[in-house]
Amino acid sequence: MSPLPLPFWRVAGVLLLIGIEALLFGFSYPFFSLALEKREIANWLIGLNASLAGAGILFLGPFLPRLIDRFGVSRLVAAQFAVSLAAFAAIALADHLVVWFVARFIMGACFSSLWTTTEIWLNGAVDDRRRGRIIGASGTLYAACQFVGPLLLGWTGATGPLPLAAAMLPLAVGVLVALSIRSAAGEVEDEDGPGDTRTLATAIRLAGALVGAAFLTGLGETAMQSLLPLYGLAHGLDDAGASRLVAIFSLGEAVLVALLGWLADKAGRRATLLGTAVVAVAASLALPLAIGSEVLLAPVLFIAGGAVSGLYTLGVVLIGADFRGQRLAVVSTGFAMAYSAGSILGATPIGYLIDLAGVEALPLSIAAGFALLFAFLLWQTRPRPRGIIPRADVDP
Fold this sequence. Notes:
It is found in: Membrane. The protein is an all-alpha fold. The protein has helices at 8-37, 43-54, 56-60, 64-71, 73-93, 97-125, 131-156, 161-180, 199-234, 239-267, 269-290, 294-322, 325-345, 347-357, 361-380.
């Protein structure tokens, strides 16, 4: 019998860390909102608190490749979990509004960089033959654990020491698990040194099409999740029906990314990426036609959610196939920063278009964005002479 193609704990341990990270991400957003609301502070301050968390990767991202090179991915991930644990402990020890905001910013930066660092770690640990399936499965795992986070908060409540303890326990487990995993030589750290770590600019130079896909995915995903309820209300749905639109879209994100990862391994990654962009365009264009049909609406939203999220997952797979060592860290971090930039912009420009042209601007503008992405992918991945630029379009 041939040996296992994957070092089991190196992959399973990183997947466990991704699950813990997703659980705490899903737990922390409603926890902070509810806990601060009970302190009777202004809603705009609660929104500011959430924004501090979301912008974390833009502050820490440029330094991640150098930090990975300096400390190693295992110790860096353990430190991110430990600092997040300390942020929750600070709230428990000093229940002051300033502490809540400083802790949220620190915690948000750690969670955002954990998302990127564990993604880099997993991409470096898996073998290329199974890369699509494992990366896709990690996306489904993340969505499932993120879903459990609010359920855990429902059990602990948002006040008192219990929710803080419930958050600190898995973070402590994350520290121990991260320290127990050893990277194989060349997975993330390599002997070439940090090289060019102007992260976003370097990532665009090396993988511009994939960085563009990340930006549009972040923008489209955030816009759909934020503005779909308004779209439903404009078409005569009640509040509950409008909220269900987001739930169906998110379910597609959770379920279909694993299928797309498997398809990338079987049918070819370039073809799957291009096909997914086409599906994202088609599903967005179909939404105005399906909104009046109970039979069509759920499948269209489900497919749209999977296609939009799948573009991000397929980008991660292609980056892992084409880059190693510090270049993997730099390009992956730039990819994540582009996604976060799109998420931060999110609903604002599309919301403005809705004000100007009506609610159909939501699906039409997203379809237009992904149509441009499809055209750019075709241009960027056309055959080139070898040695010009590392390519993200070659199927192994």
